[in-house]
Amino acid sequence: MQSFEGIAVVTLRFVLLASSALLFAPSAAKAQAERAPAIQLEEVIVQGAGGTGGVVSANGYVATATRSATKTDTPVLEIPQSISTVTQTQLEQRKPQALLDALSYTPGARVGTYGFDPRYDAFTIRGVDVTQNAVFRDGLRQIGSPNGLFRLEPYGLEAISVLRGPAGAIYGASTAAGIVDLISKRPTETPFREIEVQGGSFGRKQFSFDLSGPANADKTLLYRLTGLVRDANNQISAIKDDRVFIAPAFTWKPNELTKLTLLAEYMDSTTGGTAAYVNEYGPYTDRQGSLLYKSIGATRVFGGDKRYNDFRQQQGRIGYEFEHSFGEMFTLRQRARYSALASNQQYVYLTDSGLTKERTQGVSVDTSLETRLNTGPLAHRILTGVDFSYLHYRGKEGYGGVPVGYNANLGYRTAQTQTLVGLYAQDQISWQNWRLTLGGRQDWFSSNFEAGSAGVVPTETKQTGNKATGRAALSYVTDLGLAPYVSYATSFVPNSGTVLSGAVAVPATGEQIEAGVKYDLPGYNASLRAAVFELRQDNAVVYEVVNGYNRQVQLGLRSQGFEIEGVASLANGLSIQASYAYNDARILKLTDETVGNRLTSIPYHMASVWLDYTVQEGPARGLGLGAGVRYVGSSLGDNLNRPVLDNAPRTLLDASLRYDLENLDPRFKGVRFQVNATNLLDKVEQTCTGGFCYFDEGRKVIASLRYRW
């Protein structure tokens, strides 16, 4: 434990020293800086439906405003909630290959709980599993089923907003840990074109393109077309990483008061049906040498079969964002999306094989009215709205033995239809330096679940209910850029599928209290954020393995801790993102023998630092160097907290290098060469979660050549 705490302390000192260096620079240097012409980084605005604002405004690594937290254009400093943003600059420099890669430097986000497993973007925030119910796309809930989760192509993203803490008051169905809002690329008024080729580890070959600009002379019609084709493998030779992705977008803006944006996507991807290594069981004694249990551990033997291991998923979505302003007082917004996916998963594990087919579709619609008015000295920004979501999936499963393919008979069928309707209201009240946010929502839900063998009348289970959620938060925004805040919020989310007993999973509810402080350093493009929190969630759905048998259960948990994050992009070419998180997650309700235990795979300590420097002058001008360190503390491999399953702490290194070739020869204007490496030292250790053990992903190196004009 000493070494873990030491690393945490070093990280905290690093963030504090960095901020101190900026705050307490010598007065002569400050005076010289004040007399010198200001050097500003280019502000990148992710263009959303807003007539004057965007979904996210960012300056390098530093997000300045976002619509994700409140559904209104609100400065990040004034949002009384923990929020982190992965900006476009960060996405371009780190080139993440999956959502987990993009979130790996975000405080409170635990990625890699299942080691290397490319099938799903499984992760936790503040100890809560958010894989199923916290991922949103462009402010709308991203529908999903037990085996049908939308895959993400990071190249199609403009930014990622991570809201930590309940957001049910305006978003409805979501976890107590918050939401992750994936923001799609949108059309731009300035012409933008790029093509890129990639190659790298495991035979990777990829071609991508991104084209945008006005479609007519008066710029009332804008377009964007983003896509890629990839042929690749993975560190397990039986697992493919093939993908075809295309995402068209169009914006019609007849005047400054009205905007309509159409967003669509189609992706056909193939990965592995299983990434599991053979786990071995054997007798062992506890640390005192007295009790005898069964131990579990991963071997280096892949448990699948290359001949029968394809997991193909075809997914698509189409929707729109509409906004119209009625003068300065009223703004009407509506977002709608239809989504569908079809998955076909083949897998083998030891002597058993399986086939799962699932069809999932859903509709999400959110309509809101923003009203701006004053009552005496109080300024109000009132948001009222209604949203609707519909989910339907149908699955077929078959099991058999080896030889492979024996299980062609899909003998077990499941189906579920789920609808949600929510009414919500939020008031952001400003008085002098005070900011008070009050929000409330009422949701009504219904669910119809069917299960049974083919040719037999299925068993039908119906659920109906309603739930109120809310948020109250207060902050004080000083003229010095310092903003302390407190907040209380609740959450609610219906769960899809069944649990261990065969019953339909009941809805999960949660609550959190949080206190924090945000600080935008005056005169610098830099921000520090810190928060302490305690949350509880009842009936959270988790997976675990007991003596080799997989099961889905619902538990109650309590999570408390604190987080600190610092981000900066300075005029000298240096950018930094540093964070530390402490998290104590405990089981409140599962079984008698697990109550009070630490939640599986959630470490006390996590810390990360990413530094990037771009040479500004001289022969090396345009050379960019980036390096990152991610520390994950020790954790426990199952909810029984058996010591044999302890996960050792680990430190992982990432790096990047890029160069704009126009600095070598003007004829190469717009050409950039870049190399990115994750887990640079190829440190691969065992990770156990829920009673089953995996291995981390090894080193991956990707080289790219991009031409932008």
TrEMBL record:
Say yes or no: keyword Transmembrane present: yes
Sample GO molecular function, one term: siderophore uptake transmembrane transporter activity
Location of this chain's protein in the cell: Cell outer membrane
Principal localisation? membrane
Q: At the top level of its lineage, which domain of life is listed? A: Bacteria
Q: Indicate the secretion signal residues.
A: 1-31
Instruction: Report membrane topology.
Output: Multi-pass membrane protein
- Name the record gives this protein: Ferrichrome-iron receptor
What's this protein's family per the entry? Belongs to the TonB-dependent receptor family.
The record's annotation in InterPro entries points to:
Beta-barrel_TonB, Beta-barrel_TonB_sf, Plug_dom, Plug_dom_sf, TonB-dep_rcpt-like, TonB_sidphr_rcpt
Q: Name one GO cellular component term.
A: cell outer membrane
List UniProt keywords, sorted A-Z: Cell outer membrane, Ion transport, Iron, Iron transport, Membrane, Receptor, Signal, TonB box, Transmembrane, Transmembrane beta strand, Transport
Give every TonB-dependent receptor-like beta-barrel domain span.
Answer: 275-680
Give all residue intervals belonging to the TonB-dependent receptor plug domain: 76-179
The organism of origin for this protein: Bosea vaviloviae
Tell me a GO biological process for this protein.
siderophore transport
**CDD domains per record:** ligand_gated_channel
Q: In the UniProt record, does the keyword NAD occur?
A: no
Show the Pfam families listed in the entry. Answer: Plug, TonB_dep_Rec_b-barrel
Q: Which residues form a coiled coil?
A: none
